[in-house]
Design brief:
With 308 residues, the chain is an alpha/beta fold. It is built from 9 helices and 10 strands. It has one domain (3-307): Histone deacetylase domain (Arginase, Chain A). The model has no long low-confidence stretch (mean pLDDT 98).
Length: 308
Amino acid sequence: MTTLLFHHDSSARHDTGQGHPERPDRIRAVMGALSADAFADLDRREAPQAEPGQLSRAHSARFVEALLNAVPAEGRVRVDPDTVMSADSGEASLRAAGAMVAAVDAVMAGDADNAFCAVRPPGHHAEAERSMGFCLFNNVAVGALHAREELGADRVAVVDFDVHHGNGTQAMFEADPSLFFASTHEFPLYPGTGRAEETGCGNVVNVPLRPGSGSAEFRAGMERGVFPALKAFAPDLILVSAGFDAHERDPLATLRLVEDDYAWVTEKLCGIADEVCGGRLIATLEGGYDLDALSASVAAHVGVLMTA
């Protein structure tokens, strides 16, 4: 099995300022974990910059232009109370989305079985006309729509196990029956969306987990809610919003997952991908704010991608 790793150094130059939880040390911790001997066989590739036309499938062209024009020449600016840009944030955000596009191209072409995009800023909160929640562009949605519009994928699924609900992805997908979105997340919690009753046009599955939930609740939600619906949707490609902030040590939430839970869900998703779409699966980094928990969880996740 061949697993691709997409990354670019600009991810570490996206400077959110002292004390911000979505900080450059996150990607340094991830890449440090993936430098271990166990990951020597990863096919490492440079993440390219997404083109404006690729971004504007998920976002309006007006929004894309305005956001990139707002990147400061020096210092930092706030897009919203939580979301910050510095001088290198434009390149980092373009390469975060571009990593997904390149990974989709490679996996759909059969160059690899699966891929992991080690990038920041994250993306799943970004809406069509709005950056929010540490996210500038919606990387996973850009990849999904590229697969459909450019590569002929009839049906694309996104599974999101970040502790926060992927409101931006859901908003982009919920009226389109060729797209599928499923999420497990703590509820109530930022951004306040993701109730079980939010089902789109029958293509959205939300599994809200009560604060303090752990492995048993997470696995039951996946087994009972997400996996059957994903199999029934039978996508041509599975994309994963891989946030690791449901870990018990994460400071921004209260779920109690451990590394083994991420290995388990990755193995299950790879199995479904083998069953319905020739193993085609691509994951992109979303949240995860305790550095030790993040690095260990990413190692567990990518380790399964390489062997499942």
